[in-house]
Amino acid sequence: MSRNGGGVYSLPGTYEATPGETILAEQHNDPLEDLEQDANTARPIVAGGTGASTAAAARTALFGVSTTVDNTIARYDGVTGAIQASTASIDDSGNLTLTSTDAGAAAGPVLNLYRNSASPAASDIMGQVMFQGEDSAGNTEDYASLRADIIIPTSGAEESRITAQRKLAGATVTEYLSGLNVVPQGRITLTTALPVTTADVTAAATIYYTPYIGDVIPIYDGTALAYTTFTELSLALSSNSGHTNYHQSGKAFDCFVFNDAGTIRLGTGPAWSSDTARGTGAGTTELERYKGLRVNKVSITLRFGSSSGNTVTVDARKATYVGTFYCTANGQTEDSAINRLAWNEYHRAVRSQANYFTATRSSSSTSFTEVNSEIRLKFLDGGAYDATEFSFESPVNISAAGGNRFGFGITIDGVGTSTPTTELVPDGTGVYHTTTRRVIAPTLGVHTISIFAIVSSGTCNFRTGATATAFPTLNGIVRS
Predict the structure, then answer these.
(1) Taking residues 435-463, what's their average pLDDT?
(2) CA angle 362, 366, 369 (to 5 degrees)
(3) Sign of the CA dihedral 317, 318, 320, 321?
(4) What is the pLDDT of residues 281-302, one digit of tens each?
(5) DSSP at 470
(6) Residue 275: its pLDDT value, please?
(7) pLDDT class of 169 with cuts at 50, 70, 90
(8) Contacts by residues 268-273 (CB-CB < 8 Å, ≥ 24 positions apart)
(9) Secondary structure (3-state) at 30
(10) pLDDT-based confidence at 163, cuts 50/70/90?
(11) Among residues 271, 240, 239, 244, which one has the least CA distance to residue 255?
(12) What is the Cα–Cα distance from 211 to 188, expressed in whole angstroms?
């Protein structure tokens, strides 16, 4: 076989025949045997090949290193122009593994989904990871996905959110993991580790903010909302009038969650200026909305404990408002069927109220007047978001018959209507079972519900029976 150093093949010198002469066997056989041997001999591809004569040597020539590790993925080095081995691999089951051997503190390995758009715009989806599988009928189903959305693409003011989608009862449900529509996930409560109390709590000296639908709360850090995890937070109330922002009887206090130099705390600001107003400006708990959340509008001094020094000043917007409570005594509050005085900004629950007369109560006033203060209900509304509903049932009779009239109604803060909501003209002195109902529009503050009555003459008696079930009863439904 005749190949030169460059791998160029040349026929044997004996192959050439001369016109007019007899062709010899070696002129025929030698070239063909030489070509057969050359065609069946392994050799490197010199022009555009690896220069290797074995598979292992070809991999080394291609990648610069031996790539005998199973499932290794090759990569192109844009600096050297070479194809090299990587630390990524895909096994026979389709599992992708990215490995970093960096011993430093930098993130790694990093999966970078880069959308190289010349015109980024709000609502652009920057990339998405999809989780697909088959359903019971063999259909390909998008079971879940995770994606990044642009909210604001403006340079220097960029904003984004992470959006997750999942299946629920056959439909796709969208949930925002960051950015828009993320609200505090806990509840104000008067019982530790119980987001919604199940029994009356009176004379409570500690407020808790406990996880409810989750354990994340957004807190503004001066630049953006920081989505912060928390465990149950507590606030021991101060009854000492010498303490700044102590928890004074007959006052409402707003609750905030804030970051105190790395410690997440629950605290309260100054008392409301009245039963129905927070006040405005410096020295108040005036609120404003920031990215959908209510926060402190002005710099505020927050009390986070019962000791004298348990206060800290927090800049505007850096305290997230979560609810309000009302003090029944210095350093005490209540959440009971009679007094619903702990209110939540988020995740409000439907709470019942009830109170009743313990003895027959009478009214003989010819003007609309409260029957008796014993049956009052009190509730707190920190946002004026929800209507409330109250009803009153009672066996009644009037001492004088024959055209005498009596009526009664439900009032809020002693102000209802100048006329009753239920009115009777009995034809005798017997006992009648009566009821009245009132829906009250959302109204900010601490409010008292009571029963007023009026008679044209004689005396109206709200009677008790032999059992508590027959007692005149005032019921209510509130959200707090």
Answers:
(1) 91
(2) 60
(3) negative
(4) 999 999 999 988 999 999 999 9
(5) G
(6) 97
(7) confident
(8) 268/207, 268/235, 268/302, 268/303, 269/245, 269/296, 269/300, 269/301, 269/302, 269/303, 269/319, 270/245, 270/300, 270/301, 271/245, 272/445
(9) helix
(10) confident
(11) 271
(12) 9
Q: What is the dihedral of CA 92, 97, 98, 104, to 10 degrees?
A: -140
From 210, 212, 127, 184, select the one nearest 346 (Cα to Cα). Answer: 184
Residues 6+ apart with CB under 8 A from 2: 9, 10, 11, 12, 34
* Residues written for the chain: 480
β-pair partners for 369: 453
Tokens of 152: 């604001």
Instruction: Kindly calculate the radius of gyration of the chain based on its CA atoms and give it in whole angstroms.
Output: 41
**CB within 8 A of 49, min separation 6: which ones?**
none
**37 to 41, 43, 117: CA distances (angstroms):** 6, 12, 58
The CA distances from residue 381 to 38, 67, 217, 306, 457, in Å, are: 96, 70, 22, 25, 38
Distance CA 386, CA 70 (A): 64
Q: Tokens for 354, please give them.
A: 């009830």
Q: Are 6 and 51 in contact (CB under 8 A)?
A: no
Instruction: Tell me how far CA of residue 42 lies from CA of 55, 58, 127, in angstroms.
Output: 11, 13, 48
Q: What value, to the nearest 5°, has the Cα angle with vertex 229 and ends 225 and 234?
A: 110
* CA-wise closest residue to 192 among 266, 96, 113, 251: 266
Handedness of CA 327, 329, 330, 331 (dihedral sign): negative
Cα gap 468→395, rounded to integer Å: 12
In three-state secondary structure terms, 329 is strand
Residue 19 has pLDDT above 90, yes or no: no
| SS3 state at 289 | strand
Between CA 55 and CA 53 the distance in angstroms is 7
CA distance 232 to 329: 25
Q: What phi, psi does 61 have (nearest 5°)?
A: -65, -35
First-last CA distance in the chain: 97
**Chain centre to alpha carbon of residue 95:** 32
SS3 of 139-161: CEEEEEEEEEEEEECCCCCCEEE
Out of 78-87, 348-357, 367-376, 461-470, the most confident range is: 348-357
What is the torsional sign of CA 39, 41, 42, 48? Answer: negative
